[in-house]
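Ticket opened by: R.M.
Priority: normal
Category: complex prediction / small molecule

The reporter submitted a protein together with 1,3-dihydroxyacetonephosphate and asked that the result be attached to this ticket for the collaborator who will pick it up next week. Submitted input follows.
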Amino acid sequence: MENKAYVPGSTDSRIEELRKRFGDDLVILGHHYQSDEVVRHVDIVGDSLELARRIPDIEARNIVFCGVYFMAESACLLARPGQRVFLPDHEADCAMARMARAEDVERALERLTASGRRVVPLAYVNSSLAVKAVVGRFGGAVCTSSNAKVMLEWAFKQGDAVLFLPDRNLGRNTARTLGIPAKEQCLLDLSRDNLDSDEARSARLLLWPGCCPIHESLMKPDMVDAFHSHFPGCRVLVHPECSPEVVERCDGAGSTAYLIKEAEKAAAEGKESALCIGTEFHLVRRLMEKYADRINIIPLAQATCADMEKVTAERLLATLEGLDEGKGEVFVDEALKAPARESLVRMLEVCR
Ligand code: 13P
Ligand code: SF4
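Result attached by the on-call engineer:
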């Protein structure tokens, strides 16, 4: 958190007054994609894995999560009894998570396993609690972009095949790092219904047809080529939610935590004149500003996540003002809690 004097009566100063008033009863978490106006009030900023890992150690009664809905739901699963989780805007829901409906995932798994084949679901954390519950019931686990490789290796050891969902790009990019050839992969097509096709039956890796519209549609292979030709010898690093066509042209791909570490290293080493980063723009701009005197950080695209942007300083303030009355509290379906938690805890145990 920045130690700044804010204009009395401003949104910033009112947030800080309330943070002081709640003291140890309040912790504010924020994902790296949150805007600066929010991040400046956050106690713990991190990627999805880091934030999930920190929850079990939090003692505060109130956890305000500045991020998107599935992140707050995961926090609810990992919170202690009596702790309350708040999300400043319940409309902030990840577009990719919306691409996998629990009933569709369940139906697909029932069909894929009907013959006795053991298909283990591996859900990217960017999925609803209801999907995580289905995954837990089918013996699967959750992964994040930081640990997708380790978790995919784990999932392969549990059965005959893996259903990776909802992000086909993270699935394919991770498969590439494990050397799984394209012919052993099958992209499910729910409208054409290829679940019973020979391709689906023989594939080791089944991919759900979801994606992040920000990373897939706004970051293109020719943008990577353009950077490389303007800055020879300089690297392009992207988030693995980008398409495989982008990732294979790049010099590295990894979670937001990886991208931040690489920017820090590049700035310290001073070997490159420029570094191109392909992920959500609020994070890239923060890195550009932080290292402006040492390295020229260039965004692959000025792509912002409209859902992450729904959490604003104003909405954070409104949540804090209504905390005692439970404004913005997130509740999860009790019946889904145990199986969803199981899928999440499996990840935390495998990646301990
Ligand atoms: P991380 O797993 O890197 O935090 O990314 C989450 C996300 O939503 C990326 O679009
Ligand atoms: Fe979801 Fe993409 Fe936004 Fe991440 S950037 S929260 S994957 S829509």
